[in-house]
Amino acid sequence: MVIQEFIPADFDPPVLLVTDRFRLEPLGPQHNEADLDAWMSSVDHIRSTPGYPDGNWPPPEGYPPERNLQDLTRHAADFEARKGFTFTVLDPVDGDVIGCVYLYPPEREGFDVAVQSWVRASHASLDGPLAETLVDWIAEDWPWEQPDRYGR
Fold it and tell me: What are phi and psi of 89, to 5 degrees?
C-alpha cells in the first residue's frame, strides 16, 4: 500500500490570509492567553458549530493555561512537520484572537483534507464568512481538491 503525503514535498504552505474581516496566521504558543480566552468564552457556541460533533471539545470546564499551551505547541509542531495546519483567526483591527482554523488529514474516505473552524460567540456572524473564505482559499492556494467541511 502506498501512503500518500498530506501535502506534496515541494509545496510551500501559505502562512497568511488577510481579509477585511479577519486575518489568519499560524497558531503558536504566543497566542496561548488570547486563544484560551477565546474558546473558553464560547464553549457552547463552538460545540454547536459544524465540525465538532463528538462533544469532546471544547471541554466545559476549560483548561489551565499550561494545558492549552501544550495543545498550541503540538499544533505548531504539526505545522512545522507539515502534518497539519492550524491557524489562529485574528481581528484585523485589534489583533485579538477571535477563532481558529484546522486543516488536517481527513478521517473519512473520499476527502483529502479535513477542514474545521470556529469563532468566538461574540463574533458568531463571522462563522459562515470564515467557512466560505476557507473554501476559496483551499481551492486557490492549497493542493487539495476534496475538503471534508463536516456538513457545511
Answer: -105, 120
Q: What is the pTM of this model?
A: 0.94
> pLDDT, tens digit, for every residue of 108-128?
999 999 999 999 999 999 999
> CB atoms < 10 A from the CB of 62, how many?
14
Residue 41 phi/psi, 5-degree rounding, is: -80, -5
All domains of the chain, ordered by start, with CATH?
A: 17-148 (3.40.630.30)
**Which H or E run includes 21?**
none
DSSP 91-109: -TTT--EEEEEEEE--SST
Instruction: For residue 5, give the 3-state DSSP assignment.
Output: coil
Residue 65 DSSP one-character state: H
